[in-house]
Specification:
mainly alpha, 5-stranded mixed beta sheet
């Protein structure tokens, strides 16, 4: 065997080892049990849509007047999908669904990065960095599917820029329509399209100084037409143009940013210092020097994507994942410029392999960005004992519940058991949310509430119980007592 053949064989083995190690790391990040409370709510809504053929127009589930509050089920299509997954596979099998979706997202990110860099190892690392940055948002929620749509729109824009073939832009229309029926982040497709239009105009201005305005408009026109097509296609949803208004109001609702974790700004106390925060900070620390060193290869659209989505990410945690997705373009473009200066030796790839093995070990020891393991995740999901207890047909009526417990209560036992609130804070509004929360610190208000609404049970987390009802002697005198308790929740019933 010649020296060249030996070198090629060694390189192939290193590539295979790098690929395997990277897949292991991604699997440890993504193959974890589901823990999002919203899963139950989406599955319950999906069940209603599938069985009745109608999309709920009101909050429906609470036993209070809130049941008549208007509700936009803008994620209805994913809700139906999640209902089928929970109903057919069971909650335990969803770990595999999450994992497969994670591997698929990683593969698509790596493919796009390789398309731009032409480099194997570097594309793997870019995709892996993205997966680490978005991992704190890796739940079976509509947002996860929206990341695929964002990646697809970005890829179509990049392919059109490279090949100037209209089918790439035309394909953006169906994608936008599908996105609008799956998640409220669909206007981000319009942001991406507009940015590519602006980028093309800036490139034209730089290339043809003698015919600036005409050249810039000509260059931007295809992207503007594609953006207009996406804007029109997104109207193909159950709410029509009202969906745009709903998304705008939600984006600018001040109280949402105060009470809903995913809408909080990046430096909010609940996020700053968390694993998700440091993963994002690490991603920026990795990307910044590469972007600077390879800045000549970054297009104007790439820089504009960084600025626009960086601004969104600072304002709301949920946008961090979209920021990481779109930065594949500028980051990979910078790496492509640096390619001749990047060491391609077996020693460098061996060092990368060692880093991946170390990362896998840390994930095994400490869990992923959400401190979750393939065999365990902390959640507010009901224990088997609680499910069995509430499954008794004799247990029925109105349930005053902790905020975190409403969604699963709805999925498993509605309408036999009706909650006071679930996780749709945007539907209930600040006043209703605070009124429910305030009951745990005001015994007189709580006693009036349970009498007014004929509350049959109170279901609380131990945290809420220890902070409130445990210290309410008059409630006990009224006949309220513990009828069930496990390590997570306390259920109180009333002697009548």
């Amino acid at each position: 065997m010649t020296d060249q053949a030996t070198k090629n064989n060694k390189g192939s083995w290193l590539k295979a080892a790098l690929t395997a190690a990277t897949i292991v790391v991604v699997a440890l990040l993504c193959f974890v049990p589901e823990s999002s409370n919203d899963l139950w709510l989406h599955a319950a809504i999906g069940r209603i849509i599938w069985t009745t053929g109608e999309i709920p127009r009101t909050a429906l589930f609470p036993f209070t007047e809130a049941s008549r509050f208007p509700f936009h089920a803008h994620e209805w299509l994913v809700s139906v999908l999640l209902y089928f997954l929970v109903n057919r596979l069971g909650i335990g099998a969803l770990v595999f669904v999450k994992g497969v979706l994670g591997l698929a997202l990683f593969g698509l990110c790596a493919h796009l990065a390789h398309r731009l860099t032409g480099r194997f190892t570097e594309s793997l690392l870019v995709a892996l960095a993205v997966m680490v940055a978005v991992n704190f948002r890796h739940f079976l929620r509509p947002e996860l599917f929206a990341l695929f749509f964002a990646l697809a729109v970005l890829w179509l824009m990049i392919e059109y820029r490279a090949q100037r073939r209209w089918p790439y832009l035309l394909a953006c229309g169906p994608l936008a329509a599908l996105w609008a029926n799956c998640h409220g982040s669909f206007p981000l497709a319009l942001v991406v399209g507009t940015i590519f239009a602006c980028g093309a105009a800036l490139e034209a201005l730089r290339a043809e100084p003698g015919a600036r305005l005409r050249a810039s408009l000509h260059a931007a026109r295809p992207y503007l037409l594609a953006t207009a097509l996406m804007a029109l296609a997104a109207l193909l949803n159950p709410y029509g143009v009202q969906l745009y208004r709903f998304v705008w109001e939600l984006q600018n609702a001040t109280f949402i940013r105060s009470y809903v974790y995913e809408w909080m700004p990046i430096f909010s106390p609940l996020f700053a210092g968390s694993r998700g925060f440091w993963a994002f900070a690490g991603y920026l620390a990795l990307a910044a020097p590469l972007l600077y060193a390879g800045r000549r290869g970054v297009t104007p659209a790439g820089w504009l994507l960084l600025l626009a989505f960086g601004y969104l990410a600072i304002g709301a945690l949920r946008h961090i994942a979209f920021f990481a997705i779109v930065t594949i373009y500028p980051l990979s473009s910078a790496i492509a410029t640096l390619a001749p200066r990047i060491d391609r030796s077996a020693y460098a790839r061996g060092a990368v392999f060692g880093i991946l093995v170390t990362g896998a070990g840390l994930l095994i020891r400490f869990g992923n960005i959400n401190a979750a393991y393939p065999y365990y995740v902390q959640s507010h999901y009901f224990s088997r004992a609680l499910v069995d207890y509430l499954g008794n047909e004799q247990v029925r009526g109105n349930v005053l519940n902790s905020y975190e417990l409403g969604a699963e209560l709805v999925y498993r036992f509605y309408p036999r058991l009706e909650p006071a609130i679930d996780s749709r804070v945007d539907v209930y509004g600040e006043k209703y949310l605070l009124d429910v929360l305030r009951l745990n610190s005001d015994e007189s208000a709580l006693r009036q509430y349970v009498n007014r609404y004929q509350v049959a049970y109170i279901l609380q987390t131990w945290r809420d119980f220890n902070e409130g009802i445990r210290h309410m002697p008059r409630l006990r005198d009224d006949g309220w007592h513990v009828v069930f308790a496990d390590q997570d929740v306390v259920l109180l019933g009333h002697k009548r």
